[in-house]
Amino acid sequence: MKDRPSLYTLLALLTFALLPGPAAAQTPFKLYISADMEGVAGVVSEQQILPSGFEYSRFREFMTAEVNTVIDAAFAAGATEIVVSDSHGNGQNLLIEKFPKKVSVVRSWPRPLMMMEGIDESFAGVVLLGYHTSTHNEAGVRAHTLSSARLTEVRINDRQVGEGEISAAIAGHFGVPVILVTGDDQLVKELQGSLGNVEGAVVKWAHGFHSARTLTPTEANEVIRAATERALGRIKSFKPYKVATPVRFDLRFKSYRQADMLSYLPIVERIDSHTVRYIAKDMPAASKFVEFAVTYEADMDP
User: Fold this and answer.
1) Helix (H, G, I), strand (E, B), or coil: what is residue 68?
2) Number of domains in the chain
3) Given this model, what pLDDT does residue 27 score?
4) How many C-alpha atoms does 164 have within 13 Å on its Cβ side?
5) 282 pLDDT more than 80
6) pLDDT score of 112 more than 90
7) What confidence score (pLDDT) does residue 297 get?
8) Within-domain flag for 270
9) Collapsing DSSP states into helix, strand and coil, what is residue 47?
């Protein structure tokens, strides 16, 4: 008859079995954060969002803190890797030294996937942080789409869209859902109306293009943390935002000149005096065209 293992041996084996395995054995759980600035708590004008603004340096801190709030909640929920897209202005706003390990940051422009550069099929979800309403919306702080200086309307397959829908559609191409949006009350209302039951974190209430009632940064981060935890807690319930292909992308410019010049390209159709249309095979292809259309200038530096 074989000897039975002692109680101490059994306890040792049980303890060993309960110890966490090597990092390589952890199931990958990647989160993508696309961070804009107009929807950050306290932002109401160019004084907070442009490098020349007297409050810009402070609001870089606030923007970074909001992103870190999502990061902390995500790691606490089991995330193994996070990619952050600095999607505002010059793409060099976030204070990257304040981020923890296992976080990488996409910076500067141009980028083939615009505000979603770096997204792919390996991500579990997307957070659109600090976003704002679209150029066709009558409400919202700093409402615009892609370029406040150049564009008055953007459409995908004849539907008016803002940056939130464009980013969601790019993520949707890869089968990745948006799980949370943060910004003013009008932004959350707009994107929940188009994307479905995504979680929303309202950090201010718009009174106009340059006015809002806002939470303090401390309270805004509490709201964002709670919303992130709710979103991650039901992450399997979200569906990718997919658009039909081929993608019909219309850009309406404030000036005749851009529409006129772009119409010289054989791949572009001029719809009216200010509007051009590009038909793309999918959202990544559409993104490349839009990035070119709103970024290219003949006198670009090498």
Assistant:
1) helix
2) 1
3) 86
4) 36
5) yes
6) yes
7) 80
8) no
9) helix
